[in-house]
Amino acid sequence: SQLAEENLWALSVHEGESVTVNCSYKTSITALQWYRQKSGEGPAQLILIRSNEREKRNGRLRATLDTSSQSSSLSITATRCEDTAVYFCATGDSGYNKLTFGKGTVLLVSP
Amino acid sequence: NSKVIQTPRYLVKGQGQKAKMRCIPEKGHPVVFWYQQNKNNEFKFLINFQNQEVLQQIDMTEKRFSAECPSNSPCSLEIQSSEAGDSALYLCASSLGSQNTLYFGAGTRLSVL
After folding, report:
1. Does domain A4-110 have CATH number 2.60.40.10?
2. Which CATH number is B5-112's, of 2.40.50.140, 3.40.30.10, 2.60.40.10, 1.10.443.10?
3. Confidence class of residue A1 from pLDDT cuts 50, 70 and 90?
4. Residues A93/A25, Cβ–Cβ less than 8 Å
5. Pick from A35, A98, A103: which is nearest to B98 by CB?
6. What is the pLDDT of residues A17-42, one digit of tens each?
7. Would you call B48 and A48 a contact, using CB atoms and an 8 Å cutoff?
8. DSSP class of residue B60?
9. Cβ atoms within 10 A of the Cβ of B71, count?
10. Which chain B residues touch A41 with a CB distance below 8 Å?
11. Within 10 Å of residue B46's Cβ, how many Cβ atoms?
C-alpha cells in the first residue's frame, strides 16, 4: 500500500490564481517532503517539513503538516505557467533509508 | 540545481538484451538511490547505497537487476535480460543522508521493444 498519496490526480488553474495540493500518509513519519517534476526533468525538492513542524514556507510555497490526521498540503500562491508540473509528496518512517513517493498530482497552469 | 548526472538520457533495447545506465552523484553525497518511474508517474524504489555498500534493495533488484557504486567511478544500474515491463524512467538521486533531501538526475528513459 502507498505510504504517501496525493488526493487529486490533476488540477488546472489560470496564472495568478492560488492552488493547494493535498497529501495523506499512512505511517508515522520523521519528515515529509514535497517535490516537483517538470516534463523531461527529474524531481526537485520544494520543501522538507519535519514531524515537529506545522508549517514551512519557501517563497510562494507553503506546506503544512498535520500529524494527527496524517495529512499535508502544499499551497502555491500567484501561480505562473512555469509551475506546470507533477507534484509529489514523499515520506520516510522513523527508521527509513528511503523515501516513498505518492502517485503525484498533475498541475496545469494556463495563461 | 541538481548536479547528478545520468547517462544515457535514452536507451532502447530488445527483449532479453542487457541495459546499463550510469549515474554520477553530487560531489560529497555518500548516499545514492535508484528509482523506477512508470508512465503513470509512480515511483518504485529499487536500491540504495551508502559509501559503496548496499543499504536496502527490493526483490526485483536482487534477481535481474544489478547495481554498484564503486569508489571513484560512476554508479551503475544494469538489467541483465530486459523485459517489456522494464520500460520506464530510471532515476538516480544522491543525498547527504538517507533522511535528507534527494537530488535527482534527469533520468534514463529505457524502452524495451
Report:
1. yes
2. 2.60.40.10
3. very low
4. no
5. A98
6. 999 999 999 888 888 999 999 999 99
7. no
8. H
9. 6
10. 106
11. 21
